[in-house]
Amino acid sequence: MAKTFKGRFLQNLTTAFELPADVVLNLPRITITGNVQLLMENHKGIISYDPEKIRIRTQHGEVAITGTKLKIDSLFASEVRINGHIHGIEFLGLRG
């Protein structure tokens, strides 16, 4: 999380009260089913998309999903579902 006073305060609050970090800190929540489906919540939009790599913006950086035959199955304001053969997930510039 950011090293600002607000960031430290929220992180301490999350720990002290055992609150879910993804909600309080607006972190991306990623759920993977095998290597064929990925659900990401708390995203801020698609940066780029092709069948071998999808880049997604988050509040704290970028997440890149690599694989083959990747496709965006559904896209909503705070949720994206990706299907295909997922080979990797990379966190780029994600502060935490």
What brief labels describe this structure?
96 residues, Immunoglobulin-like, six-stranded antiparallel sheet, 55% strand
Report on this model:
The protein has helices at residues 5-16, 21-24, and strands spanning 29-33, 37-41, 43-50, 53-58, 61-75, 79-92. With 96 residues, the protein is α+β, with helices and mostly antiparallel strands. 18% of the residues are buried.
Structural class designation: alpha+beta
What count of helical segments does DSSP give? 2
Approximate helicity band:
10-25%
So what's the oligomer here? single chain
Low-pLDDT sequence parts: none
CATH architecture of the domain at 26-92: Sandwich
* CATH topology grouping of the domain at 26-92: Immunoglobulin-like
Task: Please tally the β strands and state the result.
Answer: 6
Distance between the termini: 4 Å
Q: How do the helices and strands line up, and which of them pair or pack?
A:
Blueprint: H1 5-16, H2 21-24, E1 29-33, E2 37-41, E3 43-50, E4 53-58, E5 61-75, E6 79-92
Antiparallel strand pairs: 1-2, 2-6, 3-4, 4-5, 5-6
